[in-house]
Amino acid sequence: MTVNDRHVALISAFFDALGRADLAAMERCYHPEVSFGDPIFQEVEGRDRVMRMWRIQLGVRSGLQSSYRDVRADDFSGTAHWTARYTFSSTGREVVNEIDALFRFEDDLIVRHHDDFDFKRWSRMALGRPHGLVFGWTPMWRRTIRERAVRHLDDAQPS
C-alpha cells in the first residue's frame, strides 16, 4: 500500500475535530455526497444528513472523549481505530466503545465513512440490565434501536 499523507492528515483532522466536538471542522472533511454507516445508523446519505447524525450523536454522548490510533490511508481508502468514552444520556451509563473506521476518498475528501463496533457489547454498556444484557444480541432489539435512531434523525432539524 502506498501511503497518502494528505489522506492520513484528513482522517486525523476529522478525529481531532470530533474530539473537540467541532462540527464545522468535521464537516469540512466530508465530501458533499458522503455516506456514513455503523451498526446503529446503518446508512446515512449526504453531508447535511450525516452532520445532523453527528449533532445527534454528540448530544446523546455527554462528555464525549475520543482518541484514535493506527491511521492508515492510500489514494483511495483509509482505516483507523478510535475509542469513544462518554455517558449515554438516556441511561446515565458510562460507555467505552472501541470502533474500527473505514474511509474512502474522492476529491481529497471523505466520501464514505463506515464505523464498526460490537453492538452487543455497546448495548450492555449503554443500556445496562436487563435490556442491554438480555436483549442486546437479538435482531428485534437491534431493529428497535435502529428504528429509534432513524426516527430521531428524521425528526432533527437541519442546521
Describe it.
- It comes from Nonomuraea aridisoli.
- InterPro entries: NTF2-like_dom_sf, SnoaL-like.
- It holds the Pfam family SnoaL_2.
- This is Nuclear transport factor 2 family protein.
- The protein is of the alpha+beta class and 159 residues long.
- The chain has a single domain, classed as Nuclear Transport Factor 2, Chain: A.
- It is 43% helix and 36% strand.
- It has a 6-stranded mixed beta sheet.
- The longest helix has 17 residues.
- It is globular, with a radius of gyration of 16 Å.
N/C terminus separation? 38 Å
Question: What are the low-pLDDT stretches, counting only 5+ consecutive residues below 50?
Answer: none
Query: Count of helical segments?
Result: 6
CATH fold node name: Nuclear Transport Factor 2, Chain: A
CATH architectural arrangement: Roll
Measured by DSSP, the beta-strand proportion falls in 35-45%
Largest sheet: 6 strands, mixed
Q: Class in CATH?
A: Alpha Beta
How many individual domains?
A: 1
**Count of strand segments:** 6
From the spread of the alpha carbons, the general shape counts as globular
State the strand order across the main sheet. 2-1-6-5-4-3
Topology order in helix (H) and strand (E) letters: HHEEHEEEEHHH
Q: If you average the pLDDT, what whole number results?
A: 88
- Classify the helix fraction into a percent range: 40-55%
Structural class: alpha+beta
Give the C-alpha Rg: 16 Å
Question: In a few lines, what is going on in this structure?
Answer:
The chain is 43% helix and 36% strand.
Keywords for this structure?
alpha+beta; Nuclear Transport Factor 2, Chain: A; 6-stranded mixed beta sheet
